[in-house]
Amino acid sequence: MNLTFANYFKVWFETYREPKVRDVTIQKYLIVLDLLENDELGQIQLKKIKRKDVQEFFNRYGQTRRRQTVLDTKTYINASLLDAQHDGFIKINPCARIEVVSVEDRWTVAQRKAVRDEKKWLEIDEYKNFKRYLIGTIHVALSQSPNATFTIKDKRQEVAHSFNNYGWLPQMILIAIYIALKTGARFSEIIGITEEDIDFKNAILNIDKTWDYKFGKKFIPTKNLSSIRQVLVDQEFLVIMQQYLEWMKKHEVQIDSGAILVAEKVKIYNSTINSVLKNLFLAIDIEPISIHKLRHTQASILIAQKISLQVIAKRLGHNDTTMIQQTYGHLLESIEEEENKKLLELI
To answer: Strand, coil or helix: what is 21?
Structure first.
């Protein structure tokens, strides 16, 4: 086989990966393919690639990339080379025992500390204050028509943030943020919610699909089978959702394919939500976080309340508790310390 590595990777991807992965994952493979097509590693014949060639590639690549990006790229390249070895095209996998290089390796102590101290979720008092303010803002929004000018006062900058700059209706944005805060659901899961997904009788939010906001293919499957779940909600949630649905019917809001948070013919951007969310936080002097970090907030609050990791993982749509333990390790350690103190008092 005289294919270059880039050509082999393309054939391998089209044969073994493209038919079974989601569009968003396909784009990641295509990025790696483009990378190989424009790098000297990709021009080497597959059978002539040495471990040194792969290490030099990652040395170059990691000079301007974060560690997780490099690790993800290594995963794709390693998988293709493992299959090449399995198929007998190469005798050994030249990606074995490769050392990962990234920009973090050159960070100063101050830079590392800044990243470590970066706000990852809301504290419990911030959560309560923000929820109270958000609900009040929603009530004001639902008292207005879809075309009304709606602003949020930014107390720090003393400017009015207007929703008129966005294609989304302000009411849809606020409800999406509220669902994220109350359930910890992923952004694509939230905007894929239909009216039928809200079980008012049993107080359950059904999550069994997502909205493909990046590629415009409407409803697509969830991230994995564990992401298909039923999330328990409280009476407050049900009341607000009922008010929102009544507001939609009153104003005859046109939605796309039954997705109650997607206005017809409107392009959705994650950045839109985060821009509005930032202004909501600044309005009440809370350091802003992204909508994804509202998911972290849900987990951290449940951990602090000593809810079992299995219940938290299931609520967030994780396969198991591994991600919870990795992401919230220091919270779990503090709870363990408290439990150990109680244990000593008992014995």
So the answer is: coil
- 241 Cβ neighbours under 8 A, 6+ residues apart: 175, 198
How much is the pLDDT for 191? 94
Long-range contacts of 211-216 (CB under 8 A, 24+ apart): 211/259, 211/262, 211/268, 212/23, 212/188, 213/187, 213/188, 213/268, 213/269, 213/270, 214/23, 214/24, 215/23, 215/24, 216/267
The single-letter DSSP state of residue 197 is G
pLDDT of 343 reads 57
β-pair type (229-232, 255-256): unpaired
**Residues 176/193, Cβ–Cβ less than 8 Å:** no
Q: If you average pLDDT over every residue of the chain, what do you get?
A: 88
Residue 201 CB contacts under 8 Å (≥ 6 apart), including other chains: none
What is the maximum alpha-carbon separation in the chain? 71
Express each pLDDT in 8-44 by its tens digit: 999 999 999 999 888 778 889 999 999 999 999 999 9
Domains of the chain: 5-115 (1.10.150.130), 124-319 (1.10.443.10)
Query: Which amino acid, residue 143?
Result: S
| 207: region left, alpha or beta (phi > 0 left; psi from -120 to 50 alpha) | beta
Please state whether beta strands 210-212 and 204-207 pair in parallel, antiparallel, or not at all (unpaired): unpaired
For the stretch 5-18, pLDDT in tens is: 999 999 999 999 99
- Token pair, residue 331, equals 């919270």
Query: Considering the entire predicted model, what is its pTM?
Result: 0.77
The closest of 223, 214, 216 to 185, measured between CA atoms, is 223
Residue ranges of the chain whose pLDDT lies below 70: 1, 115-117, 153-167, 329-347
Please enumerate in sequence order all residues whose Cβ is within 8 A of that of 287, keeping only pairs 6 or more positions apart, or say none. Answer: 119, 281
Q: What share of the chain is helix, strand, coil (3-state, %, to 5)?
A: 55, 10, 35
